Structure prediction request, 564 residues.
Amino acid sequence: MTRAARWVALAAVAVGLVTFPYWSAAWETSRFATTVLRDMLVFAIFALSLDILVGHAGMPSLGHAAFFGGGAYAAGIASQRLGTDQLPITLAAAVLVAALLALVIGLLVVRSEGIFLLMLTLALAQIVFAIAFQWTAVTGGSNGLAGVSRPTLFGIDLSAPDRMYVLVAATFLVVSLLIWSLMRSPYGRALTGVRENERRMRALGYDTTRLKLSAFVVAGMIAGVAGALSAYSQRFVSPGDAGIGTSVQAFVMVLIGGAGTILGPVLGAGVVMYIQRVLSSAIPVSETVLGLVFIGFVLLARQGIVGLGRAAYARVRAP
Amino acid sequence: MIEVRELRRSFGGVKALDGVTLTVGDGERRAVIGPNGAGKTTLFNVLTGELPPTGGDVRLAGAEITRLRPWQRARLGLARVYQRTELFAPLSARENVALAVAARAGPYRAFRAPPRSEYAAADALLERVGLAGRENAAARILSHGERRQLELAVALAQRPRVLLLDEPTAGMSPAETARITELISGLDRALTILIVEHDMDVVFRLADRVSVLHEGRVIADGTVSEIRGDVRVHDVYLGKAVSVA
Prediction:
């Protein structure tokens, strides 16, 4: 496929994705499908942001939910306390809080590697979770933050399910494009260098500590966007959004889909959400299925779905 | 260009560097030789900042750099070819060199592809070290000799003022050794080179002056012919290596 043809095909897929609630309206399951697809895309954004760290920069983190939860709470609390449903205001609050959290946590963790990085991010995210769980006056504590209002943008009310979906899908496209172009820029290439050989990067004159911190903040901000979209969609924020379960969920999505790619985390989010939201109502052991799928990928296909696809494509192309 | 004064570095009770003093002039090519464990690689690690010294100081072009981090020293023009190959294994030879070329402009350039000029510069350097035609090969599939050539291209891409070469011909065939020696010998004379090497033919071919390190101290320092004639040097080192030369 030529470059132009590829862009046309991608644009067609993008338009189809954003307009899903309208062309699927005749289906009996359209409303349910729209809700599931919306939540898949929220998690796709979240998984994409985690993959900046895990796949691109080689910094596996088990605390990414701190930024997702931080963004969700910031959007919800800003909306309630300021009495506004203006998207630019609540979304900016989410991005700002997530960025600050990522800066603080990042400063504490970027010098560690491997298992120590995993444990440190996990521990620091649990502090964020504990604050969300116990600071009842602000966060609603264990009851969560109920009644988050859906946003308006330029006077357009986005509270109807189809409009809420369009907001999520459009944001997903913007974020994917952003991350794609970031990763093919000199910045993304430098992150790859850090992943492959940080010592050599330092010897070449790169301040790798600062570079890793910047990646942490960028990933945290995007996770904050996902958190805000989750708060608008569910009209609810729970402490679990900042908890280990959410961090692990994103990590599993990245690994099943294929780390270090754009398509991988998106496909991973699709598979995981499908099992959790669709398959769960059909069969009683869906969590077990998810576990088995995950084990299967870790044991047999480390490069995830994207890796399997590439291998199959190479086999077809080979003479 | 490089002044090292009373440099010390201990590991526990072991004095790897026991007061090394060394001055390398602008554009000079200096070899550091000595038996295994004499402190040569430790000296390089302290010079590049990967190991902090326990005493003494290091100056680069007159500026004190003893407490600077490795990336800051690299920015001041210090480049190193490692003894054990340190590359970006899955990246192509071109990408490996481009990362070094791009270090000057820095990593904070987002939302557009890396400029073609960086890749053009990388290709030119690959050709210069004899890797033309291998631009797209991943570093991990290159032969040992090719990786050493790539290491040299990466170091040169930094446009250094001082080049530290840690056994650039280690593990190479005689033909590869001859080629890389030729290559180093043909580098810009303005470039200051510090080289650790066991192959005495290479040392005598490349170096203007030689410093002999023994048990963490410089025991002799002189031109190639002075060092050849130094009795102490023969005792600790040269005796075995060049007895037939």
